[in-house]
Backbone:
């Protein structure tokens, strides 16, 4: 046996292990999707789900599956995927375990724009304000990046970005609070948006956010090698031939698109993006080429699963997915953190 | 055999005036007692206190019934008309004092947390204090519902602060207990804090959707942080908490400075690291809990005041006294603006963010310009 | 002998790195621990500096169990410079070195004349007096390393443990630091234990050498006793010629080649 063969074998093992975990996560997403289509106030057996999807007859189960459960499931998968990937990107770029994908002002930008649109335009439909939410998210994030750039040469450092993002978020949250305290209709909408839910959206919503999520995912995957280099420090990254400013900008663009789309459609669920990457890092280690897909799939499985759990525990009512996620996900997260050798940023 | 420390001679030994070279460390020595003064930190503190005094004076003068400075002084000293005395002593002074005390407590609390977590984004909210307090108060408000509206006076004066205090301390205890594992680790503490805060916050959001929208709005005012209608019953407990905890914290200043170095260095310097971290965190929790019980979770002060203070004082980590002054100025200024500038009186916690965030951003940009990067 | 290790077992979690080791450090000497990466030298140094609690056995300082002594009391006798220490952004050199005075201070004695003199001496000895007000992150790697050494010096202890004090330093500054170590011994009778990678410098500047491999001591004694061809072979798998140093007559290692190792050993941190 040659020396090269001895050296390569552990790497091959690692790759096999990683692919196994990736498939397991994909299976978890499928299970969550199937459960999400079946479970609810009116349970639908698998055969009827199948029939509803492929040869609908207009029966009651068909309507429930096609009009209620498919849209929320699709939205859950999309938003979970988006927030999982965005969270991993955000923690990678800031090297701060406290960074959630809303850190750059995305969540609060979306919230403020939506609340403002409700007050000013008197919108009553959930779908009208998604565009405003997206626009607000993009503007807030661009403002944070511009502030980070202001005054210095080159790309802003993570600490500057994180602090600028926190400051802008606090500022926007204050403005949002002002508006909702003065306007009860806005308050009524805001408190439900804030709790975070994927229920009650029609199929158009998933379609609206899909392009943003798709572009965001493409940018995120393109960003992974650069992020791996950056994790070794800016000097090493530069020596490896990376353009730091471009890498940072790509990452922030991806985070903004992914998070903006998800929170505009589902409310403030950004904290999935905080927790999921820590879970994914325990499985994948620090390589972002694996961490990003793991994190995305874990998010895509977790959000619909939490939604299903919310339908089960509060039967026949429902508990918001955001609340369930916190109640189930956070204790699991704490247990993970307490393990001795959880990998660090 | 062993020589006393500091006796090794350098090759070109000649004790020149070191005070010139260590200009930013001015000792004040009387016999065996020596205190360390930093000119720039001192200047910032004095300026901040002057600003605080000015803002407080404005606070007492302005309002629905504007008063001259002499009227204010007369009322504070026990003279003046009965009406003026009532307005100043019962309404404006307690409110101004509560604001300044709460701000100072939050500033110190944030400075401690950021130093121990070695993370500029950390604050007492990470320790579970604010979210625990908010959850308890929202639960009390929503569950109380009609009772709160009916017997509001008693509940608002005693029940809400008590719920906040209990919730805050319980939250901190939970975070601390879960983060402890053969010692305390800053990184683990912060992550456990994130998890616990997520549970509390989302439960709070959920409770807000469960109740009546009027209860939700009322709870929202409290969880935004408000100084409205704060009386001496808020001043006294906060002042007592500060009086007890602040001296203990200041005794730990030097230890806090050392704790910022790596764990091995800290141990090498003879600091019992878990004890030091634990007791300083306890101080942070007590201060934040007292502040939150008095005025609700005023946002952003605990995070921004230390960061503003360290940039103004030109040091590497949040200085405790300057952080306290910065916090007090921020809250007092915000409350003044909340009372006088806006048509509808807003909760002070909203205004602290509106005022503090741009200022922090300005400091970030300026520091970056000065150093090329930060 | 002021510092002793008695049958210590050392490790992190359930990973055993040093299994039963006895060691005594002669007072007033410079002792250097040498050995390949991952042989447990830093772990041993951390245990001697009470940074790591032995799984069993004990470390004695002046005949007392070091882990049962008040940590502050230890800090007045024994100073430690860890490997790759961390400091907050923007901290100045003077502030860092001043923190070395922590064990000698109290709330009513924050900055005594003694503190000031010790910090100044420490800065002068490492040649950093003119950089005292500069932030640490603006210095070169070598200057930063010297700032950390200054901090350990400012602590003013009789015993000093230095983990790779010459990392990041150019040859001239390495010699400078090692001459400083010799001066500390000669002028103040201090005891120094350090970890070094450069065998020739170690041989030249140490009174005693301890050669380690896989968590055990292979050889200990004077440089002449330890720095021999068989020991180098056993410790480093290194085929080398040892000749007298033309200047100091201490052993001088001239490496020839590495013997291929049968298996790769795992590398503890």
Residues:
């Amino acid at each position: 046996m040659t020396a090269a063969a001895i050296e390569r074998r552990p790497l091959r093992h690692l790759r096999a292990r990683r692919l196994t975990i990736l498939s397991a996560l994909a299976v978890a997403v499928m299970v969550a999707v199937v459960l999400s289509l079946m479970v609810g106030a009116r349970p639908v057996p698998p055969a009827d789900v199948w029939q509803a999807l492929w040869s609908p007859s207009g029966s009651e189960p068909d309507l429930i599956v096609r009009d209620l459960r498919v849209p929320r499931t699709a939205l859950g998968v999309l938003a979970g995927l988006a927030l999982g990937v965005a969270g991993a990107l955000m923690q990678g770029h800031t090297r701060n375990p406290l960074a959630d994908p809303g850190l750059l002002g995305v969540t609060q930008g979306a919230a403020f724009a939506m609340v403002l649109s409700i007050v000013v335009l008197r919108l009553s439909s959930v779908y009208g304000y998604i565009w405003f939410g997206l626009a607000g998210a993009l503007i807030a994030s661009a403002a944070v990046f511009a502030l980070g750039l202001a005054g210095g040469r080159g790309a802003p450092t993570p600490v500057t970005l994180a602090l600028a993002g926190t400051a802008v978020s606090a500022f926007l949250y204050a403005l949002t609070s002002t508006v909702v305290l003065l306007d009860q209709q806005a308050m009524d909408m805001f408190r439900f948006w804030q709790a975070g839910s994927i229920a009650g959206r029609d199929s158009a919503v998933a379609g609206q956010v899909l392009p943003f999520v798709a572009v965001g995912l493409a940018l995120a995957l393109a960003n992974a090698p650069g992020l791996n280099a950056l994790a070794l420090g800016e000097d090493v990254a530069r020596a490896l031939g990376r353009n730091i400013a471009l890498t940072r900008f790509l990452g922030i663009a991806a985070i903004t698109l992914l998070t903006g789309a998800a929170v505009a459609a589902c409310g403030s669920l950004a904290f999935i993006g905080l927790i999921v990457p820590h879970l994914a890092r325990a499985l994948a280690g620090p390589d972002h080429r694996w961490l990003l897909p793991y994190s995305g799939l874990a998010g895509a499985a977790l959000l619909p699963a939490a939604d299903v759990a919310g339908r089960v525990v509060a039967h026949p009512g429902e508990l918001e997915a955001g609340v369930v996620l916190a109640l189930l996900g956070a204790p699991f997260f704490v247990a993970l953190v307490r393990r001795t050798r959880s990998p660090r940023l | 055999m062993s020589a006393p420390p500091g006796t090794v001679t350098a090759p070109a030994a000649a004790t020149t005036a070191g005070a010139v070279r260590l200009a930013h460390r001015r000792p004040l020595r009387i016999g065996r007692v020596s205190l360390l003064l930093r000119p720039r930190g001192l200047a910032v503190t004095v300026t901040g206190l002057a600003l605080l005094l000015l803002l407080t004076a404005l606070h007492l003068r302005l309002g629905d019934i504007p008063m001259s400075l002499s009227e204010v002084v007369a009322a504070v000293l026990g003279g003046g008309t009965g009406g003026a005395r009532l307005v100043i002593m019962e309404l404006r002074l307690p409110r101004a004092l509560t604001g300044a005390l709460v701000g100072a407590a939050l500033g110190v609390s944030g400075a401690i947390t950021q130093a121990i977590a070695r993370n500029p984004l950390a604050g007492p909210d990470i320790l579970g204090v604010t979210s625990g307090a908010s959850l308890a108060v929202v639960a009390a408000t929503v569950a109380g519902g009609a009772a709160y509206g009916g017997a509001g006076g008693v509940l608002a004066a005693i029940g809400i602060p008590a719920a906040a205090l209990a919730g805050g301390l319980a939250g901190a205890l939970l975070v601390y207990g879960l983060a402890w594992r053969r010692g305390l680790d800053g990184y683990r503490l912060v992550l456990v804090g994130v998890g616990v805060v997520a549970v509390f916050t989302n439960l709070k959001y959920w409770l807000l959707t469960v109740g009546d929208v009027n209860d939700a709005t009322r709870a929202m005012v409290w969880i935004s942080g408000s100084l409205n209608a704060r009386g001496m019953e808020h001043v006294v407990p906060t002042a007592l908490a500060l009086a007890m905890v602040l001296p203990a914290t200041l005794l730990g200043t030097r230890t806090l400075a050392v704790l910022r170095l790596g764990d091995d260095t800290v141990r090498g310097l003879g600091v019992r690291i878990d004890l030091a971290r634990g007791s300083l965190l306890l101080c942070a929790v007590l201060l934040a809990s007292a502040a939150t019980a008095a005025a609700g979770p005023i946002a952003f002060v605990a995070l921004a005041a230390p960061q503003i203070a360290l940039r103004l004082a030109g040091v590497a980590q949040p200085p405790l006294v300057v952080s306290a002054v910065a916090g007090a100025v921020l809250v007092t200024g915000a409350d003044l603006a909340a009372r006088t500038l806006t048509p509808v009186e807003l909760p002070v916690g909203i205004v602290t963010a509106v005022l503090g965030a741009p200022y922090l951003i300005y400091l970030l940009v300026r520091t970056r310009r000065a150093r090329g990067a930060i | 002998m002021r510092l002793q290790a008695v049958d210590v077992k050392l490790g992190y979690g359930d990973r055993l790195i040093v299994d039963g080791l006895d060691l005594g450090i002669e007072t007033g000497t410079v002792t250097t621990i040498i050995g390949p990466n991952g042989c447990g030298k830093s772990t041993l140094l951390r245990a001697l500096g009470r940074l790591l609690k032995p799984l069993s056995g004990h470390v004695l300082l002046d005949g007392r169990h070091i882990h049962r002594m008040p940590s502050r009391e230890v800090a007045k006798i024994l100073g430690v410079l860890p490997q790759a220490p961390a400091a907050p952004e923007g901290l100045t050199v003077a502030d860092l070195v001043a923190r070395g005075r922590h064990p000698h201070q109290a709330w009513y004695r924050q900055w005594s004349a003694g503190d000031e003199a010790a910090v100044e001496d420490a800065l002068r000895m490492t040649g950093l007096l003119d950089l005292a007000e500069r932030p640490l992150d603006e210095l070169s790697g070598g200057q930063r390393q010297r700032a950390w050494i200054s901090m350990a010096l400012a602590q003013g202890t009789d015993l000093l443990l230095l983990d790779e004090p010459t990392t990041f330093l150019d040859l001239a500054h390495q010699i400078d630091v090692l001459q400083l170590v010799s001066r500390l011994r000669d002028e103040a009778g201090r005891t120094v234990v350090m970890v070094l990678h450069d065998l020739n410098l170690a041989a030249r500047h140490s009174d005693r050498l301890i050669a380690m491999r896989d968590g055990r001591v292979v050889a200990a004694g004077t440089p002449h006793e330890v720095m021999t061809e068989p020991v180098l072979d056993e410790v480093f798998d290194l085929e080398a010629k040892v000749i007298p140093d033309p200047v100091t007559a201490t052993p001088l290692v001239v490496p020839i080649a590495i013997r291929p190792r049968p298996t790769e050993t795992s590398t503890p941190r």
In short: The longest strand of chain B covers residues 26-30. Chain B has a mean pLDDT of 79. Residues 43-52+83-367 of chain B form a domain with the ABC transporter involved in vitamin B12 uptake, BtuC fold (CATH 1.10.3470.10).
